[in-house]
Amino acid sequence: MRGSEDAVGELLPQAGRMTDEKDAYRWTGEFADPQLEDTYLRASWTEIHARLGAVLIAIHVFVSWAIFDFLTLGLSWPFVSLAVGRFTALGATLLALKVFRTPDDRRGFMFCAIVTQVLVSFIAPLSLMLGEVNFAAALLSIVVILFAFYIGVPTRLAPNLVISSVLCLGFVIVSPALAEIDTLTLLEICVLFAVVNAIGVEMVRAANRLRRDGFLTLMRQQELYDQLKREVESRQEAEATVRNTEESFQSIFYAAPLPIALVDPAGFGLMQANMAALKLFGMNEDEAQNIDVRAFFDEEDLPARIETLLVSGRAGAPVEFRMKRKDDAVIHALVSAATVHFQGRRALLIGIQDVTARRKEAEALRDARDQATAASRSKSEFLANMSHELRTPLNAIIGFSEALERELFGPVGNPRYREYAEDIHDSGVHLLSLINDILDLSKIEAGHFKLHEDETELDHIVEAATRIVRHRAQQANIEIECNLPSPAIVLVADERALKQVLINLVSNAVKFSPDRSLVRIDAQVTSEHLRISVADQGAGIAAEDVPRALTPFTQLDGSLSRAHEGTGLGLPLAKHLTDLHDGALSIESTLGEGTVVHVDLPLSRVVGKDLASKETASL
Length: 619
Description:
- The protein is of the alpha+beta class.
- Helices cover 61% and strands 13% of the residues.
- The strands form three sheets. It has a five-stranded antiparallel sheet, with helices on both faces.
- A hairpin with a 3-residue loop joins strand 9 and strand 10 (529-535).
C-alpha cells in the first residue's frame, strides 16, 4: 500500500488539472489516464473486494438452485454438467476472494470474476430451459441476474456489457422452449433486455463517475492537507530557526569582547548592551535601561554626525566620535551601525571600538616626529650656518702651515718644524674635506643645496677627479685606468658636484683595493642613460650590506680597530648628489672579487643625445 500512496502523491497535480477537462473520462466513466485509473483501483481495492464478497451470497443461491435441477432432471448428465458449472462458478469466486487479495493480484481477481459471470450467463438460460421453468419466472430471474452483474460484480463495464448481452441472447434463444410466444412478444423481450442493459450501463457509468469524482475530491483534499502540513512544518521550522538564531545572537551578543549595543532608531533608547559596553561606560544593567544613548556623545553637531554614522554604517565604514563615560571621562571611539530586526522590530546594532589609547599613542608619535623633524632641521641649519665659522680658521691653518712647509719667508731652521708644518697642513686639508662633506650633506637634507649647471666635458671632470686621488693611489701602488668614449661627451651638470661624486667613488675604490691592483673608470652612452662606472678589485660588499653602505656615517668595518679611515659619508653624499642630477647610483659587488658602482644620468643631460632620441622616437 505504500507504493499506492506514493503514486497518489505523484498524481495529485495531474488530478487537479483533470477535473475541468472533458476528455478526462472514458465513456464507461473510468479515467482516461491509465496511470490515474490504476491508482484509483488500488486506492478503492477494499471496496472492490467487498462488492465481490457481497455477490458471493448470490453465487451461493445460484449453486443452491442445483436442488431444483435435481428434482427436475434427476441424476442425469445434464444435471451433472449444470452442477459442475455452478460449483465452478462458486470456486472461481472463492479463489478471487481468498487468493487474489491485494491490488497487485488485480488481474487474477478480475479474471475469476469474469469466469464466474460467463458460467452464470451460460448455465442460467440452459437450466431454465431444461427445467421447464415458468416463462415469467425465468424472465424475472434473468433480469435479476443482469442487475446483479451491473450492480454487484466489480468487473469493468465493457466486459460486463458483453457478458450481459450474451446472457440476454441465450435467454432469447431458449424462450421458444419455455413457452409458445409469437414474434411480437419475442421482440418485446429483446426491447426489455435492451432497456435493462441500458439502465445497467448508465447506472454503472454514473457510479463509476461518482466514485472517481469522490476519489479526485479526496486527492485534492489530501493535496491541500499535505500543503497545509508542509506550510505548518515550514512555519514551525522557521520559528525554531528564529528562536535558535535569537538564542545564538543573545549568547554571542553578551559574550562579545567588543562593546556592542542595540538601540531603538525612533528615540535612540538603549534596548540592550553587552557587558563590554556597560564596562566601557561605567554602568550596570539597571542604569542602562531605556537610557538615551545620545547622552554619551560629546559632539557639537550631533544630529548631523549621527546621520553620517547611519549612512557610513550601511557602507561598512566606522565613524570616530568623542564620547564620555558615566563619570564624564572623555574617550574616543570608532562607532559603526547596522540596521537589524530584533524581536520583531527594527533596531540599530551599534559597535564601539575604544581608540583612546591608540589616539594618545598617535598624538605622542606625531609630537615625537615633529620634535625629531625640528631637531633635524635645527641640526642642518646649525651646520649650514657654521660653514663660515669652521672654514675661516681652517683656511688660515692650511695657508700658514703651507707657508711654513714651503719656507716662503725664509728657512724655518730646524727640519722638524717643516715636518710638523706638513702634518698640520695635511690634517687641516683632511678636516676641511670632512667639514665640506658634512656641510654638503646637511644642505642637501635641508633642501638648501643648489646645483649650478652648465655644459662641461666628462673627460675634464674625470681628469680633475683622478688628479686629486692619483697621489694616494701611487702611494698604494694602485693603477687608475680611464676608458672614456671618443669624441668627448658633453653634458649639462654641476661640475663641482659631479667631480665630488667621482672623487668619493674613486677614493673609496683606492682605499679598499689591495696593493698592485687596478681601479677602472668607464663611461658609455646607452639607449636609456649615460652610465659612469667605477670598478675596483677589493674585498667586495655582501648583498645585505649594500643598504648600510649608503647610510650616512656608517662604516661596514665598525670596530674600533678598523683598517680604513673615513666617516662613512662618501657613498651617501655621492648618491644624494646623483639624485639631484635626476640620476641613480647603484652598487654591484661580489665578495672576494670587487665592487662596481654605477652612476646613471638621464640622456637629457647629454648634449645632442636628447634631441637625437626624440627624432628617433618620432620616426
